[in-house]
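Session log. Operator J.P. requested a structure for one protein chain; no other inputs attached. Running the standard single-chain path with C-alpha cell output.
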Amino acid sequence: MNIREALEKANKQLMAKIDDAMTKEVFEEVQDEEAATIYSEVYKVYTPRMYRRRGEYGGLGDPYNIEIRGGAAKGGVMVVVNMTEPNPGGCMNDDQVTTGKNLPELVEFGDGYKFYHYDFPSRRRYMEPRPFTAKTIEHLKESRAHVNALKAGLRRQGINVK
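Structure written below.
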C-alpha cells in the first residue's frame, strides 16, 4: 500500500467516525436547540384562540418531528428538517383546519410563502414569519454547542480531539 492509498483509507475511516458523531451527538444538540428555539420564537409570541397547539407532543416543538434527512449524516453533511404535519384535529372550527401545507415553512417564512396561507386570515402576529430555523442556526453559531458535540462524539469513538 502506498502513501496515497493509506491516506485515502485513513480519511475514509475518519469520515465514517465524523458521520457517526454527527448523526448521534451533533444531531441531538441541534434537535434540542431547535425545540428550545421553537418555544421562544413560535410558542411564546402569542397564544392561539382558534386552535389548540400540540407543542412538544406532536407539534413543531416535538423533538420526534425534527429529523435528519436521509436518516444519517453522509460525507460530513447533515441536513436537519422539521417534518411536522399540520394539525387537522386542533381547530375550534372544523371548516378552518390547516391541511395541505408545509407547516414548518408556513411558520418560518410567514403567510404567503410558496402560496401557503393560514386558514385563519387576519393581521395578527402569527401571519408574520417566525424564523425558528434561522434563529436555531444563529444560537448554535453563538454557543458552538454543535462543535463541542462533534468533539464529544469523536472522543467517544477513540479519536483524540483538542
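Operator note: The chain has a mean pLDDT of 89.
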